[in-house]
Amino acid sequence: MNPQDIFERIVQILHENFGIDKASITPDAKLYDDLDIDSIDAVDLIVQLKPLVGKRLNAEAFKSVRTIQDVVDALHKLVQDDQAGA
Question: Of 37, 43, 51, 57, whose CB is crowded by the most CB atoms within 10 A?
Answer without folding.
Answer: 37
